[in-house]
UniProtKB/TrEMBL annotation, chains A, B:
The keyword Magnesium does not apply. It comes from Actinotalea fermentans. Transmembrane segments: none annotated. The keyword tRNA processing does not apply. Residues 6-61 form the HTH lacI-type domain. This is LacI family transcriptional regulator.
Length: 357, 357
DNA sequence: CTGTTAGCGCCTTCAA
DNA sequence: TTGAAGGCGCTAACAG
């Protein structure tokens, strides 16, 4: 009929064929006479029918073609972090050709109590999605994860932890950090401080209490701290940042360096944090690496730090996004993706050197 | 039945009520006895039913709760531009409370011929969405826009142009640029160059041919060039950048400044481009603003340019995202949103001053 | 090769 | 306040 958008039935009757035939003309999933198909397409053209309504198709197939992606923070903050952006880019590039779209789902407010599931984004409970991706991992008691599992939405987790019934794509950050730590101790450093990514919810900035360290619940921070321990490094001080941003690193840097007996090296758990520490060092009149060595993690290209080039542990960011995309595809194909652990690589720049004795 | 996920019918029969009653128990859209509702919820709990399947609900209501957002470039590039990110953030914050989710749709490859609709992202044709947003405007002959309109998806356009049957949210960039130009001529500048955003498809870097200028098809670039004309400024040279990124600005800056008789002022159509021009000036040993004044557009916070503070025309980025979100809401409510034009503000920094005579 | 039939899961009249 | 019935638009069997 002429009210509302035309449906396949309208097209079929206009073309003088049955609905299922018209369906075939569009899906191509079956034998159909070229002439019939032309007739149908012609009718469609005439009626302004632009193809099957995805809503009907979705209900029928049980698939929406949508992948929900939970980013680890407010958009504003996540997108300021090139790490998130590159992973997302790799993910979208992989999903696109598969006909899958990415639905952005803001994580719960990082400053709020995570147990209150009332704070969850309603999209988690009600948006159509075939698979969900938690780009920045899950926590032990994760209301987000629970909400998804309750709905029966399969989950792919970036960064870990390994959780019953969810695929994981991670990196060898523990080993990478250990390599970095050994490199620094090899240079002669003994007083090494570290600036960490957020440890657990709700987020906090500053020197974590023992209690907070015990609740350490976020995979990247845990792995990288563990890497230090593996290398036999006991940090002289641990400072937690509430986000992986330059200004947090800068604040942490002041906290770490502006003391009577500062460390001779600072390992930050991300490059943006390290960049902030570097800026803090410059502001305090400390020379890098003569007075203090600074190292990061991620392998970002940060030309604005010029002339310094950060010593870092490079992780394959786009590749991680792609690996997550592959895992999503496997889940949709009914397979159980094996855990993936991507390699990282120590990359020495100009910001580390032997300590002054 | 126990195969597959439980449906509302399963829950209803487990609770000993009819499907429609069970539906009421969840939607709350009708009178229902507290006791009955409890019974239904209890049955749902027991069966692991997490609420109505969005696919069924969508088909029934004709709404998916999804807003397709076409970003102006590859994700990787768009997300490196804080302008896009802030607009997107404002949009998501507005849409979230309305129960609407954002589906990312990569634009067509900016380096390819736009008339080939084969290059369009398949999501445009097949993803469920109630409204689409073209964050970075539409072109005259826009395959993306056409694909959406053919499907009957209402469109909200950021930045213009005003197009039949699509809502527009723009800014007063023409007037803002004119203000900026008048400020510079007021300082005594007569030789003013400009670095533009992309003018049309396919993207190119460098000095545009007259033909290309004639095909000028992208609203932000057009408005801002027009603003110069309004102020009576005829640029000594126009250089087009292929994206709003620092390195493009830097390349353009060399092109503009590394000549026998360089301009005394450069107006870039974005802050990132202006930042690049500034870096180029520094590299060429030119002092800013003594040797050359540099101005941008957007009003970004760029602390890494320190000690310089860019003279710029500030636009309300989050507010633009929010305004787009409101327009989306209006469209969904069946209203026709009036065109919106947000104000901008000239903000003088340290990078502009009188020309040396 | 084409038509008939039967739902996918839900919500909303309408009637009881 | 609850139940019965129909249909949103589509596709997959199955017949013919």
């Amino acid at each position: 009929m002429s009210q509302g958008r035309p449906t396949l039935a309208d097209v079929a009757s206009a073309a003088g064929v049955s609905v299922s035939t018209a369906s075939l003309a569009f899906s191509g999933a079956g034998p159909i006479a070229t002439e019939t198909r032309a007739k149908v397409h012609e009718a469609a053209q005439r009626l302004g029918y632009a193809g099957p309504n995805p809503l009907g198709r979705s209900l029928r197939s049980g698939r929406s073609g949508i992948v929900g992606v939970v980013i680890g923070d407010q958009l504003r903050r996540s997108f300021r972090d090139p790490v998130s952006v590159q992973v997302l880019d790799g993910l979208v590039s992989t999903l696109g050709p598969l006909g899958l779209g990415v639905l952005l789902i803001p994580a719960l407010d990082p400053d709020r109590d995570p147990t209150e599931s009332a704070e969850l984004d309603p999209l988690l409970a009600s948006a159509p999605m075939d698979v969900a991706v938690l780009i920045w991992g899950a926590r032990r008691e994760d209301a987000t994860l629970e909400a998804l599992q309750r709905r029966g939405v399969p989950v792919v987790i970036g960064e870990g932890p390994e959780i019953e019934g969810a695929a994981v794509v991670g990196i060898a950050d523990q080993q990478g950090t250990a390599d970095l730590a050994r490199y620094l101790t090899g240079l002669g450093h003994t007083r090494i401080a570290t600036v960490t990514l957020p440890l657990c919810h709700p987020r906090q900035t500053g020197i974590p209490t023992p209690d907070r360290l015990a609740r350490l619940d976020w995979a990247p921070a845990r792995h990288r701290l563990q890497g230090l321990a593996d290398a036999g490094v006991e940090p002289t001080v641990i400072v937690e940042a509430s986000a992986s941003l330059v200004e947090d690193g800068r604040a942490a840097g002041h906290l770490v360096l502006d003391v009577p007996e500062p460390p001779t090296a600072v390992i930050a758990q991300s490059d943006l944090l390290a960049a902030g520490v570097l800026l803090a060092a410059r502001e305090l009149g400390l020379r890098v690496p003569e007075d203090v060595s600074v190292a990061g993690f991620d392998g970002l290209d940060l030309p604005w730090l010029s002339p310094d080039v950060l010593t870092t542990v490079a992780q394959p960011l786009s590749a991680k996004g792609e690996a997550i995309g592959h895992a999503v595809a496997q889940v949709l194909a009914g397979e159980v993706p094996p855990p993936v652990r991507l390699d990282v690589e120590l990359r020495v720049g100009t910001t580390t050197g032997p300590p002054r004795t």
